[in-house]
Each structure stands twice: as structure tokens, then as C-alpha cells.
Amino acid sequence: MIDVHSHIIFGVDDGAKEIEQSIAMIQEAKEVGFDTIIVTPHYMEEYYECDKNVIAEKMKQIQEKMPIDVQILQGNEIYITNRINELLEEKATTLNESRYVLFELPINAEPLNITEVVYQILEQDRVPILAHPERYPYIQKNPNKLIPLIEDGVLMQCNYGSILGIYGKEPKETMKKLLEHQMVHLLGSDTHRPNTIYPRIPQAIEEVDAIIGEEQRKIFTTVYPKAVIENTVIEDMETPIEIKKKGFFGWFG
Questions:
Q1: What's the rounded Cα separation, in Å, for the pair 174 and 176?
Q2: What is the model's pLDDT at position 253?
Q3: What is the rounded CA–CA span in Å between residue 25 and residue 219?
Q4: Distance CA 77, CA 75 (A)
Q5: Nearest to 192 by CA among 223, 160, 165
Q6: Which residues neighbour 32 within 8 Å (Cβ) at sequence distance 6 or greater?
Q7: What's the rounded Cα separation, in Å, for the pair 187 and 132?
Q8: Residue 66's pLDDT is what?
Q9: What is the pTM of this model?
Q10: Ranges of the chain whose pLDDT falls below 70
Q11: What is the CATH topology of the domain spanning 2-230?
Q12: Could you tell me the residue ranges of all domains in the chain?
């Protein structure tokens, strides 16, 4: 399996603090079946602004110190900004220097510029990947807001931890609906610390398999992630299905 979203690089964001934590998480990933991890430290202007060259040096330090046979590739999780293409030319990076760009939204406020930023990414022949859509309250209230984005070419990456309820009931229920309605393309750990997400991956896989089946889940954990790291086009994706609102009490009534 390939993990497309992780915070295992030490000392650059709210993820691993020391190199020992980085190595511990990589060991955990190996034990549950990952052979490749894309490191995606936050890049947020005026907050997390670690240059991609610094990330590369820290990756080198980890690889020099660890005996674990896991491929580590470079990326970023970029906080939405109208300067996203400039950042990608200067300090941040796509996933494994591919056309695929992982970006995130504010948790508690719906951004007004998401369509503009998506088009900026697409105009540069890049593919936007939205990190953990199930965690945004405004998506939880109306998951169908993702459909126009998917139709424009945005891929959706959900977190393993969400289906386990790690982030609460709403993200869990929303991710379940997204899986059932063909609005998920990639799964990622979004791990920040040892002994948190990776040891529970087998449980998360069981939950996902129960919803969409093992074959489809493998597409999200291996087939599509492989296309990302190899910079190939993802084809034959399922068409998203509109979630029907039930009654007067919301999407999950």
C-alpha cells in the first residue's frame, strides 16, 4: 500500500517532533502493509513555511539512520491560497514532483476562493487533491458540494482515522456516505504521532471493505496512489452519486 498523506517529517509542522518519532512511524507503517509513504508536511503561509530543500535534507537524515525498507517520497499539504502556483514554483512541492497537488481548506470556515484556486491548479496542468473533505463541517452539512469539484477534476482523499471515528461522529458518517456515493479516490493516514493511526490501519481497512469491498478499496490504497507517484493519468473513475436528502433534519436523517 501507498500512504499519500503523512506528517512524519520531524521538526517542520505539528507532526513528528524528533527523528526517533519519524522512524517509529515508518516502522509502524511497514508493519501494517505500507511500502511507500509520501511525506506531506503542512505548508501554510506565515505559519508553516518550511522550504522543500529543508524537507529533502530531513528525509535524507531519516533514510541514513533507519534500516526500514520503506520508500519515502516528498510532498506537501498546502493550505488553500491564491498563490498556490507561486508556492509550488518556489518553496512547496507537489506529490513526488508529479502533477498531483495535495491541498487543504480551513476547518471551520467555508472558503470563498476554492473554485478559483482549483482552476489555478488545473491551468498549470496539475491535478488538485482535496485532503480529508469529510472533516470539514460545511461538507458534513452538504456532501454534494463535492460533486462539482469532482466533475472539475479534483480528487478526494479521505483519512483512515475518520472511518474509525477518531475525529468524531460527523467525519465518520460523512466518510461513509462519500464511500457509498463514489466521492472518494484516495485514502491516507494523515498520521502525526507514533502509536496513533498506523496501528489501527487494519481495523480501518475492515471498515472500508465492509462498505465498498476489498477490490475497490485496493484501488484507493494502491492503484490510484501508484498513478500519483508515477505521474500517470487516473482513468475510469466512478461517477459521483448525489446524496439524497432525507426529511427535514439533514443529509443523514
A1: 5
A2: 40
A3: 24
A4: 7
A5: 160
A6: 198, 199, 201, 202
A7: 9
A8: 85
A9: 0.95
A10: 246-253
A11: TIM Barrel (3.20.20)
A12: 2-230
For position 167, what pLDDT does the model report? 97
User: Residue type at 223?
Assistant: V
Are 139 and 183 in contact by the 8 Å Cβ rule? The answer is no
Burial of 16 (0-12, 13-18, 19+ CB in 10 A): buried
Q: Which of 190, 192, 189 is nearest to 204 (CA)?
A: 189
For residue 252, what pLDDT is reported? Answer: 46
Kindly give the interhelix angle for 201-212 and 169-180, rounded to the nearest 10 degrees. 40
Count of CA atoms in the C-beta half-sphere (13 A) of 50 = 22
User: ∠192-193-194 over CA atoms, to 5°?
Assistant: 140
- How far apart, in whole angstroms, are the C-alpha atoms of residue 214 and residue 191? 23
**What is the rounded distance in angstroms from the CA atom of residue 65 to the CA atom of residue 67?**
7
| Nearest C-alpha neighbor of 159 from the set 115, 126, 205 | 205
Cα distances (Å, whole numbers) of residue 105 to 20, 80, 114, 148: 30, 6, 8, 16
Residue closest to 79 by CA, chosen among 127, 119, 131:
131
Query: Grid coordinates in use for 103?
Result: 491541498
AA letter at 71: Q
Residues in the chain: 253
Q: Rounded to whole angstroms, how far apart are CA atoms 56 and 84?
A: 20
Q: Specify the long-range contacts of residues 17-25, CB closer than 8 Å, at least 24 apart.
A: 19/58, 19/61, 19/62, 19/65, 21/193, 21/194, 22/62, 23/62, 23/65, 23/66, 23/68, 24/194, 24/195, 25/191, 25/193, 25/194, 25/198
Amino acid type, 63: Q
pLDDT given for residue 246 in this prediction? 67
